[in-house]
Amino acid sequence: MSAPGPLLEMRGITKTFPGVRALSDVTLGVRAGEIHAICGENGAGKSTLMKVLSGVHAHGTYDGEILFDGEPVAFKDIRASEKRGIVIIHQELALIPYLSIAENIFLGNEQTTARGFIDWSGTLRRASELLRRVGLRENPQTPVADLGVGKQQLVEIAKALSKEVRLLILDEPTAALNDEDSATLLDLIVELREQGIASIIISHKLGEIRQIADSVTVLRDGRSIETLPVRERPGAEPELGEDRIIRGMVGRDLDHRFPARTAYEGEQAVALEVSGWTVRHPVDPQRTVVDDVSLTVRRGEIVGIAGLMGAGRTELAMSVFGRSYGSYEAGTVAVNGREVQTKTVPAAVAAGIAYVTEDRKRYGLNLIDNINRNVSLASLAGMTRRGIVDEHHERSVAERYRTSMNIKTPTVFEQVGRLSGGNQQKVVLSKWIHADPQVLILDEPTRGIDVGAKYEIYAVIDALAARGKAVLLISSELPELLGMCDRIYTMAEGRLTAEVTRAEATQEVLMRQMTRRRLTEDWS
Amino acid sequence: MTTTTTPPPGAPEAPPAVPSAMTLLVRGVRANMRQYGMLIALAFLVVLFQIWTDGTLLLPNNVSNLIQQNSYILVLAMGMVIVIIAGHIDLSVGSLVAFVGAMAAVMMVRYDVPWVLALLLSLLIGAVAGAWQGFFIAYVGIPSFIVTLAGMLLFRGATQIVLEGQSLAPFPDGFQNLAKGFIPEMGPYTQYHNPTLVLGLCAVAFLLLREWRDRRRQLAHDLDVLPTGLWAAKCGAITAAVVAFTLTLASFHGVPVVMLIMCGLLIVLGYVMRNAVVGRHVYALGGNKAAAQLSGVKDKRVTLTVFVAMGVLAALAGCVYAARLNAGTPQAGLNFELEAIAASFIGGASMSGGVGTVMGAVIGGLVLGVLNNGMSLVGIGTDYQQVIKGLVLLAAVGFDVWNKRRAAR
Predict the structure, then answer these.
(1) Helix/strand/coil (H, E, C) string of A465-505?
(2) Dihedral angle at the C-alpha atoms of A187, A193, A195, A197, nearest 10 degrees?
(3) Fewer CB atoms inside 10 Å of the end CB: C or N, chain B?
(4) Distance (Å) of CA A353 to CA A433, A494, B90, B203
């Protein structure tokens, strides 16, 4: 292996989307033959940075410069970066399920004969070699759909190797894997380093980072905070502690503004009680996505759930709300002390539960319809006379929320798809507030919206609690949880790992509980 | 027809006031671009052929003819647009038209079943056929394209089996009147058909009353309304259109029976799609199925309902078509599904679901109908007619796509 000089340098990278600055002045340096970890909270800019590097965001759409092998590069698309040996493996695997392993490996890069037809024997031979390199014992003619996620991940890496990869980027490679598959994959990444292939690995699992990385860059709010060496030389014991990484990830001033939280008045009645809730993965029944979760929310209380991506927060919420996710295994739900049945969404709504989704475009709104009809959809029954919707009532309801929620639109007949993210979120909230539930589960209610609109939404949440509603707030933004919640549960790998009161909660405490691995039992 | 009389849905609720009347108009038109566009296109076609045929197009007997020969396609289009809004497609309606027509013929010709009973049983057959397809689509989860493609083959084959490859005729007069009849003349001799005048008057009164009531209720709820002047102009336009149309029909045999049926369907289906919970749920399902499910919409039941409704409408169209031919024939309804689908898309429905109106589909059907009739009158061969209709479909949808992209900047 050659002396470790800089393989990649990214300098002063700034990338803005309409209304949002995703990256500002980010610096990243990767030495040849190292494993470089990138970590940061959800939304810190990790994925955006990798999209800039791999040419998904073409040269010219961002500011700053990228040097690869010491020369400036300007990738206009993914093919251009792959040509230089930079290959990204996305979190969602990009394999075609019904094609064979070999076909997938050479997709877009087909091995052809002199006449331009597919060279099948060459394809299979080269595919077998690549599979050997990644340690996957499978017939290259096997359809990818027949493989588990872990093996599919290895096929992705084989595909990367087929492109003469020099820098491999893995975005949360172990997020969907079980412990055994994760270990195999991490070993492989280390082995590739021995062959001179550098890797950038984005991960939330600090244990993994300590296990394999040589250095780590911490991103926060779209800025590169620091780059820390993890170990002195490859193979040595890690010297960097998880706490040190956490400090970098969260060490920000609480400069977000929150409305003065109406003090929660002690011992109200329990409005929502979930006990022993267990859910399995919809496709892979071996994986327990939510594991024996029990929690309570009192009337007028705002309770947070903190957890990193893949911790099972959304899965918990959606399965409680009409079993909309996964396959139900065990557990009960009680609203206002009475056990309720939430097998279907209408049943959950009737029981007084509302769920405001984290993905408003996919699950929350009918984007091609207007504000009026989106607001009324969950409570049409209350606006009808003999099955006929009272349009005037409906419209006056929509107008009321337009005013009270400050939805910025000329009319309630505006198509929802044309509103900004913040206003769309207000429409979803209006829909569920008007359904008048006892319990509101809010999943990332301020994701992707600007600071001003965030404040307005916080005020709405606060007002709901003041009116005696129980609010369960799922968020990836720790300051948001600290600013809004009376109590916070932390979740990791499907389990609740701690329950923290408002007084005890700090970002460090939460992050430590959120990143704890299931195997370690040192509950603090 | 009411097409020229009732403004498209959405217009009565034109956006809140404050800005000038002009901005209001522009905004309202833009919001319903496709429908207004098609209404303008329809008016243009009518004027074009009126001139080209030296006035034959709008002669009272041709207007009656136009309505009667397009009635079954319009009935199908009203159902098809609902299926399309729900995010599905129904390829089987042409075959179902033939099958129901055949069953009606068998009942009346072979077994002498009274025609009213035969009609009701036919509608029931349509409902069962629709439920059969709806079950596979909603509960088994087979894509509607495949289920109804199977239905297309199945019902066509069943038609031939039932009829043993022959036509069955003739039907009782009562049944034939479904397609060919007019409402009977009553009262003293005037120059015009009296009941038609009365119906026209009723239509004007009904439409104006609805306008007035809507406006009053909107004011009571403290909602924004059209400025008074603009509102009066709108009422005047409605009145003029209905009166002109009424006089045209009344100077021939009056209102065709089938037109009464269609107007009834248009009012009921339009109202259900706009104002009933089930209608809203259809739009929500087509617009975003996941979001609708998470809002508590019972998606399977709604889908089944939609296909049952389509089945009943196809059965009605089958009876009307059989009545018009005065026979049940194995080749009835060939390509009707394509005409109905084309009408829906021309009238503003979206391939991906969630968009469209019953009124739009009727306008789309009339565009095709006027094209057919007009081109036949001027003597353009059916070969060229097909080509032109294909181009019109392409142009209508192409215009819409272009318009949307421009709106999105």
Answers:
(1) HHCCCEEEEEECCHHHHHHHCCEEEEEECCEEEEEEECCCC
(2) 120
(3) C
(4) 11, 22, 37, 47
pLDDT in tens, B36-63: 778 888 888 999 999 999 988 888 889 9
In three-state secondary structure terms, A396 is helix
Pair of tokens at residue B398: 């192409």
Span B61-181+257-407: which CATH code?
1.10.3470
In this complex, is the C-beta atom of B18 within 8 Å of any C-beta atom belonging to chain A? no
Q: Rounded CA gap, A54 and A28, in Å?
A: 14
Distance from CA of B339 to the nearest CA of A (A): 26
Chain B residues whose CB is inside 8 A of the A396 CB are 221-223
Answer yes or no: are the C-beta atoms of B134 and B306 closer than 8 Å: yes
Q: Which segments of B323-409 are extended strands (E)?
A: none
Domains of chain A: 1-85+166-252 (3.40.50.300), 95-164 (no CATH), 270-514 (3.40.50.300)
Enumerate the CATH 1.10.3470 domain ranges in chain B, comma separated: 61-181+257-407
Interface contact flag, A355 B294, Cβ < 8 Å: yes
Shortest distance between the Cα of A346 and any Cα of chain B, in A, equals: 4
What is the tens place of the pLDDT at every residue in A292-332? Answer: 999 999 999 999 999 887 788 999 999 999 888 888 989 99
Q: What is the pTM of this model?
A: 0.78
Our CA-based measurement puts residue A428 at a distance from the nearest CA of chain B, in whole angstroms, of 10
Tell me the per-residue pLDDT of A497-518, one tens digit each, with 9 for 90 and over: 999 998 888 888 998 888 876 5
Are B291 and A393 inside 8 Å of each other by CB?
Answer: no
Note whether B16 contacts A: Cβ–Cβ < 8 A. Answer: yes
